[in-house]
Amino acid sequence: QNIGHGNAPKLKHHWVSLDEMSPSMPIAVMASEDSRFLSHHGFDFEQIGNAVMEQNRRRHKRRRGASTISQQTAKNVFLWPQSSWVRKGLEAYFTVLIEFFWTKERILEVYLNCMETGDGIYGAEAVANRHFNTTASKLTPAQSALIAATLPNPRRFSSKNPSPYVLKRQQEILRQMRNIRLPKKK
What we know:
Order of helices and strands: EHHHHHEEHHH
Strand order of the largest sheet: 1-3-2
Structural class: mainly alpha
Strand content: under 5%
Number of strands: 3
Radius of gyration: 16 Å
Helix content: 40-55%
Shape: globular
Distance between the termini: 44 Å
């Protein structure tokens, strides 16, 4: 958004492996974005069905998303942000590929490093530095849940200056985090 106005675009990003992140970060994201991430193969057909039923009931309201972490990773890494049927088709194609070729741990690691977490801020390490003056490895469960609470729209919602809505979502995510366990390392 700064391009073309003589300003350099803002970009804060630093890649960290999943092993270098607090275990609460992937759990918070799964609780917030895709609670069945570890059990589906890229598409959560139950959530898709729920989203369609809700859209039919609420004709004039904003659509509810049903994208999985795998789908969001495919979009963030390989595609453009503007929604279209072409992009959705390519997103499905890339989702199938990454689910086939990558482990769930790799998909999570890529997502947690490419997710937008604020204006020009991408990934768990960058948001930990900018919003909490810490590293991704030292994020607390409450901080992780706060970051996850902003993911539907990280330019509108802030983990640094959370609104009452974001704080309420944080509490819901913290409750849901108790039901999610990462698989044991082999």
